[in-house]
Each structure stands twice: as structure tokens, then as C-alpha cells.
Specification:
Shape: flat
Number of helices: 2
Oligomer: single chain
Distance between the termini: 63 Å
Structural class: alpha+beta
Number of domains: 1
Radius of gyration: 18 Å
Helix content: 10-25%
Length: 118
């Protein structure tokens, strides 16, 4: 990353936003959920640091399914691991695990209704 790109990323973060091209996920949550959040941000364009949250998730073999809230939009996002071969090929014997989007579906927003007492 160039110095200008680093300064731009730091400035955006200080103002409460991320730069999606440089976003690697939120530390402290598992990698598949970082990928889920990334795909949700790409789909919705939400760049606010606190604008996206994983409400629930489940693992089925290698497939991770999650419900994600982006503002008042809820999404069901499904990802699976995918191997990315390092640019140096077999010379560096390193493979990088990345995640492939299987599906992303918009769910109806949650609406809380208070019952009317009679």
C-alpha cells in the first residue's frame, strides 16, 4: 500500500468509514463472517464502520450462512472457502484461503409492533 493510500484509509477510518478496496474484515470475528460482512458491504455500499452487523450465523460443513443487518436492510449471505493460489505460484508453496459468495438474498426488514391494548 502506498503512503497516500494508507493516509486515505486512516482518514476514512477516523471519520467512521472504511475503504472497501482495502477492507480485510473485522478483527475478532471468524474469517467466514468477515467474508460475509465484506460481500454485504459490496452489495449495499454501506461503508460506515458500525453500519454492518452479523445477527446470526450457522456452519454446515464448509458452508457458512449468516443473517446480516446493513442499516435497516437485512440480508442472508452464504459463503464457502475457496483456495487462491499465490501470485508466485508453486515457488512459494503458499495457498491463501479466501471465500466465494454462493448467494446473497435480501430479507424483509424486521418491524417491531407494539400491540394495542384495549
Amino acid at each position: 500500500m502506498s503512503q497516500a493510500a494508507a493516509l486515505s484509509a486512516a482518514s476514512a477510518y477516523r471519520s467512521g468509514e472504511i475503504i472497501l478496496d482495502r477492507y480485510r474484515g473485522r478483527a475478532g470475528i471468524p474469517e467466514p463472517l468477515q467474508a460475509v460482512e465484506h460481500f454485504a458491504r459490496i452489495h449495499t455500499g454501506v461503508l460506515s464502520v458500525c453500519g454492518v452487523s452479523v445477527e446470526s450465523s450457522r456452519l454446515d460443513g464448509d458452508v457458512t450462512e449468516a443473517i446480516v443487518r446493513c442499516g435497516d436492510v437485512r440480508l442472508q449471505v452464504v459463503v464457502e472457502p475457496s483456495v487462491f493460489q499465490a501470485p508466485c505460484g508453486t515457488a512459494c508453496a503458499e495457498t491463501i484461503t479466501t471465500y466465494r459468495l454462493i448467494s446473497l438474498d435480501r430479507l424483509s426488514p424486521v418491524r417491531y409492533v407494539t400491540p394495542v391494548l384495549t
